[in-house]
Design a protein that fits this description.
By secondary structure, the protein is mainly beta. The protein contains one helix and eight strands, in the order αββββββββ.
């Protein structure tokens, strides 16, 4: 039993010595994700998306960036009541706070301003499609510059009389430069 504990401690300390991120690093990420609106009086409408993110590390723990996104979803045509697949450009501004910078695998906290669409109908406001989200992610580096990235966020709409929230589940790869 003591041998297993010693081996476990050696593995943990070895992983801590594999520093990945430094101040000034640039990170480019490619993620796919699922998003849905949730709440009592909200019609759930799942959507899939492909996201490209670009971030800059201000410190080894703090990254900020932008993430343009192409979203795919189904929508019912109000005249024919037929469902059709739609695509939309969306995106976000984000910050990530890494809870470690010396391990190969570490958790991080994120905050995002997320714009569900930039194609705003005439009778609606820009903020009707705006969300503020917070979440928790995990990055696991499989070499010095590339990591598997998994993230979950929950957010609320900035629309005046909005109800419910939005959930995003993201997974993909991140690369440091």
């Amino acid at each position: 039993m003591k041998k297993l504990m010693v081996i476990g401690m050696v593995i943990v300390f070895a992983a801590c010595g594999l520093s990945q991120i430094e101040k000034g690093d640039t990170e480019v990420g490619f993620m796919g994700y699922f998003t849905t609106r949730v709440g009592d009086d909200v019609e759930s409408n799942g959507a899939g998306a492909i996201q490209l993110s670009y971030g800059k590390y201000i410190t080894p723990n703090f990254e900020w960036g932008i993430a343009p996104t192409l979203t795919f979803y189904t929508q019912e045509d109000w005249q024919t009541e037929e469902k059709e697949i739609k695509t939309d450009w969306s995106g976000s501004f984000f910050f990530n706070l890494n809870l470690s910078t010396t391990a190969k695998t570490f958790p991080y906290i994120t905050g995002r301003y997320y714009q569900f669409t930039f194609d705003i109908p005439d009778n609606m406001d820009f903020t009707d499609f705006s969300y503020v989200t917070v979440g928790l992610g995990i990055k696991s580096f499989f070499n010095e510059y590339a990591a598997l990235d998994i993230l979950g966020t929950y957010g609320f709409s900035l629309a005046e009389e909005a109800e419910g929230g939005i959930i995003n589940i993201l997974t993909g790869l991140s690369f440091l430069f």
